[in-house]
Amino acid sequence: MIETIVSAALPVDERLIIQKNRLQPKELTGQEKRISIVTGLYGDELDGQYICYELIRRINSHKKNLKGIVDIFPSCNPLGLASMTRGVPMFELDMNRIFPGSEKGTTIEYVAHQLIDDIIGSDLCIDVHSSNIFLMETPQVRVAEDFAEKLVPIARKINANFVWVHTSATVLESTLAHSLNNMGVPTLAVEMGVGMRINKEYGNQLIEGIFYVMKELGIWDGLVETPKEPIVSTDGSVSLIHAEVSGVFVPEVKHGEKVEKGQPLGSIVDSLTGDVHQIVESPESGFIFTLREYPIVYEGSLIARVLGGKE
């Protein structure tokens, strides 16, 4: 059942429309659990488009197994998706930095408010992201320390490789996930893949995890796969590795590999002179869960993230 969540006026008699697909049993008891799958907050994050399609396809193929309500929001920033723009074009806004929005605010603040208002009441929300064009991310759940006690047990079941429990930052307080968690809706922010691409392997991995947690909630009654046990960042520390110079980053390792302290991750080279300006080394032994995908770097550009302290 396709529902319009918000329709806001745009210039030249156009409208910004956000829709969801609600999947539910034919007959409702009023006691059904509800899960919301949200994606498309950034116009360059595309894994969620495949995930939404495949979730709907699988559920509709075995509709008799559906015992609860699944709300799927594929495109929360339709203008960004249509124009291949990360933020909201024309408004020059980061969609995921204006929540919970305002009913009487600007157009995008109103959109954010209506989206939050519709999700409220869900028993679980999964906010799907795909990094950006610069970085490849292993399937992971990012959890603020403030909500770790409640969310980490759920995050362990979503079939991610990694659960990153991070310190709360002021800038994150205006995200969808933080706002919903503050409002009492358990919300997992999932990150995977790289911008402007669809990684079916990662998408299918998350889909299996979504079906698993849906079964635990009593929303799904079909067969599910047991999720993999993720590494949790409380077992170690996360090191961020940045470029010290500008140039072209040529990797020597693969995303998801284990590395040793001092091991070269790659080199930053000069394509004009043939010089090597920096050999990028891992500051500790651990697991690479983020690796530079776009090779052009400048001083300070993020090259990799390594989780250390985990044997």
What does this structure look like?
With 311 residues, this protein is α/β, with parallel strands linked by helices. The chain contains 6 helices and 17 strands. It has helices at residues 47-61, 78-83, 107-119, 148-155, 176-182, 200-217; strands spanning 2-10, 14-23, 34-38, 69-73, 124-129, 135-144, 162-166, 187-193, 231-232, 237-242, 247-251, 258-259, 264-269, 276-281, 286-292, 296-297, 302-308. The strands form 2 sheets. Strands 1, 2, 3, 4, 5, 6, 7, 8, 9, 10, 12, 15 and 17 form a 13-stranded mixed sheet that branches. A 4-stranded antiparallel sheet has the order 14-13-11-16, with no helix packed on it. Helix 1 (47-61) packs across helix 6. The longest helix is centred in the C-terminal third of the chain and has 18 residues, at 200-217. It starts with a strand and ends with a strand.
Sum this structure up briefly.
With 311 residues, the protein is α/β, with parallel strands linked by helices.
Key traits:
single chain; 311 residues; alpha/beta; 4-stranded antiparallel β-sheet; 6 helices; globular
On the 0-100 scale, what is the average pLDDT? 95
Q: Portion of residues in helices?
A: 10-25%
Percent strand equals 25-35%
Multimerization state: single chain
Unreliable stretches = none
Give the termini separation: 48 Å
| SSE class | alpha/beta
Secondary structure tally, helices: 6
Biggest pleated sheet = 13 strands, mixed
Shape: globular
Give the H and E element order.
EEEHEHHEEHEHEHEEEEEEEEE
Number of strands: 17
| Radius of gyration of CA atoms, rounded to a whole number | 20 Å
